[in-house]
Design a protein that fits this description.
Elements lengths: L7 E6 L5 H8 L7 E4 L9 H13 L5 E4 L6 H7 L6 E5 L1 H9 L8 H14 L3 E7 L10 H20 L2 E6 L2 E6 L1 H4 L7 E5 L49 E2 L2 E2 L14 H9 L13 H11 L10 E7 L14 H10 L3 H10 L2 E6 L14 H20 L4 E7 L3 H13 L3 H4 L12 H17 L7 H9 L1 H15 L4 E3 L2 H10 L10 E3 L6 H10 L15 H19 L4 H26 L1 H5 L53
Parallel strand pairs: 1-5, 1-6, 2-3, 2-4, 4-5, 11-12, 11-13, 13-14, 14-15
Antiparallel strand pairs: 6-7, 7-8, 9-10
Helix pairs in contact: 3-5, 4-6, 5-6, 8-9, 9-20, 10-11, 11-20, 12-16, 12-17, 13-15, 13-16, 13-18, 13-19, 16-17, 17-18, 18-19
């Protein structure tokens, strides 16, 4: 959407206004959605109503789950209140809910209290929530008591839910007009924002702070498709032009042993050789020469350009159970909402760098000490979803991806992946737990260690291939990150890493396509033990040792201006004067040699003066014709001296190397 920062939104609209389609577009970037259907099935003989319901069902992606609350209207508040921070809910719609609420067979003792309960649940909902409701207040007042009761109850429900939501949008004739935005609700912005047609759904780029000079909010990112189990359009190229991947009815098949592109093996060394000739005072760029070599290899040219278009993918996904010990409830959701609103460390750094920022919701992960983090179908969807995120970035002209992550329990999940793929000991790769006040929480650290230990014990007989590791231990954020790395590799798009989620994804991706690690650049290990170990296994030497701890992705963005400066210098600086002089001398020497050869070719006497090469034990001759057959005891033929040459004296050797008699 063009105005973001919301966690809960109410979508209003009249009949056939397009409100449901617009609401579905708002959650199109979520890998999984819980669709809450509130309407009763109705009269089974009503074919038109059945067709309407079927149209709604057919429009939902196959990866969505459906939950019905028509039998008990009070249960809707429970469903909303029990939603988890990583979930996305779409409630469609309040009109059907009010109809059931007023039905004598289902009516609670106090329908006003039921509406208030729903409003309170919406206000406290930690999940991403979209509620659809019809707007009937613009029509005439109904003449029947039942009609008036319905409009009054629906109007009261709409007002209560709108007051509880972060944002409210009215859809009229397929056009969306925002009545309430997060900025307006906090008293810091305008109250109404007119949007483009609802078909254009996009993410929000980061914006500069009030003191900054840039505002990129108008530059919307392209829509990111949610992976589904429905058949994809024929001929969709989910691969680089130089490769072919298997595609079946459910879409792209990501499997071990994929042959993805490698960076150019010649451009990198050529770029480093060129650096040695540049007019740079001192010894040069030091270890940052590797940035030039990496950019040259990934761009396929010895003179790489600076990364002018950068996109940050912030993967938001929590892990349940002991993996999240010490993480404040709702903290990661707050960070993700902050980034959507263009606020916080990551958004500020992205704005300063002119990078766009896209928040990606990943599937919630179960407690790995007790259950698999994901089922295998969720892993497949998450991998394809990450691949398509990279595809969308490449199609939009992005030159560099920065992988970021925020979520409770990500450190423990990364440690579990490293233990399964590299044989690491969990305590050795689990970073210390630091509270919001800056204190070390050793008790939480021990609970995380215990969770990883129990998860490894639970899966001790499980296969250790890539998808099994993601399903049992990695979870949604690492699975989506793995798909991003694979998709970026397929599209020859480099990725900047700096945290445990990205490095854990790198460890998993090497078992699916070993080429992926060659498209990754590690900015700074941040002192994180898991990042250090994974980088060592993958052969990714960190460029810097700043020990930044600003959050995964923010560390890389801090280093990005420096890396860009290095590439700009390498592309713009001329060669040293001595190199230019040597190049000119070489060119002149080449011209003189060519002239001499031409002159020699045009002068028969000069050509005759060229000393012949010996062709055996006997003396060489310059005669181009066949010699006469020698007679027995006949001496070898004497060479003919060149015209004008002095006769050899007794002290000078003749051309054949013998002294004259």
């Amino acid at each position: 959407m063009s105005v973001d920062g919301w966690n809960t939104v109410l979508v209003l609209g009249g009949i056939r206004s397009g409100k449901s389609e617009f609401a579905e577009s708002l959650v199109a970037d979520a890998p999984t959605v819980r669709y809450v259907a509130t309407s009763a099935a109705g009269d089974p003989t009503d074919a038109e109503w059945a067709a309407r319901l079927k149209a709604h069902r057919d429009r939902r992606p196959g990866g969505w789950t459906t939950e019905e609350t028509a039998d008990d209207p009070r249960r809707l508040a429970d469903v909303v209140a029990s939603a988890r921070p990583n979930e996305t809910l779409l409630v469609d719609d309040l009109g059907g809910w009010v109809t059931v609420l007023l039905d004598p067979a289902h009516q609670p003792a106090d329908d006003t209290a039921t509406v208030a309960e729903l409003a309170d649940a919406v206000r406290a909902c930690p999940a991403r929530l979209v509620v659809v409701s019809p707007e009937v207040g613009l029509s005439l007042v109904p003449t029947t008591p039942l009609g008036r009761a319905f409009t009054d109850a629906l109007g009261a429900a709409n007002r209560a839910v709108a007051d509880s939501c972060d944002a409210v949008v009215l859809v009229v004739a397929g056009q969306a007009c925002w009545l309430k935005t997060p900025a307006a609700s906090s008293g810091t912005g305008a109250g109404a924002v007119t949007l483009a047609p609802l078909a254009a759904q996009a993410a929000v780029p980061a914006t500069a702070t009030p003191g900054g000079a840039r505002d990129d909010r108008a530059a919307a990112l392209p829509e990111v498709l949610t992976p589904t189990t429905a058949p994809e359009p024929a001929g969709v190229p989910w691969a680089a032009p130089t490769m072919a991947l298997p595609v079946v009815a459910t879409g792209l098949v990501i499997q071990p042993g994929m042959e993805l592109p490698m960076p150019d093996e010649y451009a990198g060394p050529q770029a480093l050789e060129r650096l040695a000739t540049l007019d740079v005072p001192g010894a040069g760029l030091g270890v940052l020469e590797r940035v030039v070599g990496f950019a040259a290899a990934t761009q396929g040219t010895p003179t790489p350009a600076s990364w002018d278009s950068v996109r940050v993918l912030l993967l938001h996904g929590d892990h349940a159970g002991g993996a999240a010990a010490g993480s404040p409830p709702g903290e990661s959701a707050r960070r993700a909402a902050q980034a959507r609103a263009g606020q916080g460390v990551l958004a500020r750094l992205a704005a300063e760098s002119g990078a766009s920022l896209q928040v990606v919701e990943t599937p919630a992960s179960e407690a790995i000490e007790d259950l698999p983090a994901l089922d295998h179908e969720q892993v497949e969807q998450a991998l394809r979803y990450g691949w398509r995120l990279a595809e969308e970035a490449a199609e939009a002209g992005v030159r560099l991806l920065v992988l970021a992550a925020c979520g409770a329990g990500t450190d423990a999940a990364a440690a579990a992946v490293l233990a399964a793929t590299a044989g690491a000991e969990p305590p050795a790769v689990l970073g210390r737990v630091v509270t919001a006040g800056g204190e070390i929480d050793d008790a939480a650290w021990m609970r995380r260690c215990a969770a990883v230990r129990d998860a490894l014990h639970r899966t001790r007989r499980s296969p250790r291939d890539a998808k099994d590791v993601l399903a049992e231990l990695g979870g949604g954020d690492i699975a989506v990150a793995t798909g991003v790395l694979l998709g970026a590799t397929a599209r020859r798009l480099p990725v900047l890493l700096d945290g445990p989620v990205g490095l854990a994804a790198g460890m998993v991706s090497r078992d699916l396509a070993g080429q992926a690690r060659h498209w990754c650049l590690l900015a700074d290990h941040g002192g994180h033990p898991a990042v250090r170990l994974a980088a060592d296994v993958l052969g990714l030497d960190p460029l810097l040792d700043l020990r930044l701890d600003l959050g995964e992705g923010a560390n890389a963005l801090t280093a990005l201006p420096l890396l860009r400066s290095v590439l700009s210098l390498a592309a713009a600086l001329p060669a040293r004067p001595d190199q230019q002089h040597a190049a000119g001398a070489d060119a002149a020497a080449g011209t003189d040699d060519a002239t001499s050869a031409d002159d020699t070719a045009g002068d028969p006497d000069a050509a005759a003066f060229v000393e012949p090469e010996p062709t055996g034990p006997g003396p060489a001759t310059t005669a181009p014709t066949e010699p006469a057959a020698p007679t027995e005891h006949a001496p070898p033929a004497e060479p003919t001296p060149p015209a004008g040459a002095a006769e050899p004296t007794g002290s000078e050797p003749d051309p054949a190397g013998r002294r004259a008699d």
